[in-house]
Amino acid sequence: QVRLVESGGGLVQAGGSHSLSCIASKPTFSSNTMGWFRQAPGGEREFVAAIRWNSGTTYYADSVEGRFTISGDNAKITVNLTMNNLKPEDTALYYCAATLGYWSGSPAYTKAAYTTAANYNYWGQGTQVTVSS
Fold it and tell me: What pLDDT, in 10s, does the model give residues 88-121?
């Protein structure tokens, strides 16, 4: 069983920066894509960012585009999320996720596939990020 373990959560002031990391527990684990989702209190789990290992293609939610950067190392099975210019509305429990799936087609179709939580096979326990105003 593969475990994804997040780290780096904490309390940050609005306008500040913070980084999250995630590592897979199984060295032989090979995913196609890894990403980050978040869930605010009372809200639904929403997509934040994802990276496809074979092409290096990255996807971002509109709400974080230009502020967050996803990066990682498929050989080390790690994925990071660098968050800049944080806002109070970024406060949430952030989850690392990985998918074994592969989708191809139009750019809109593939983006929809890789940004849908239901298409991810493995999930971490989550790490809390709180942004104070």
Answer: 999 999 999 999 899 999 999 999 999 999 999 9
Quick one: CA torsion of 21, 78, 59, 41, rounded to 10 degrees? -40
Q: How far apart are CA 18 and CA 29, in angstroms?
A: 27
| Burial tier of 70 (Cβ tally within 10 Å: 0-12, 13-18, 19+) | buried
Q: Is 114 helix (H, G, I), strand (E, B) or coil?
A: helix
> What value does the mean pLDDT of the chain take?
93
Summarize pLDDT for 6-17 with one digit per residue, the tens: 999 999 999 999
Whether 50 and 95 have beta carbons less than 8 Å apart is answered as no
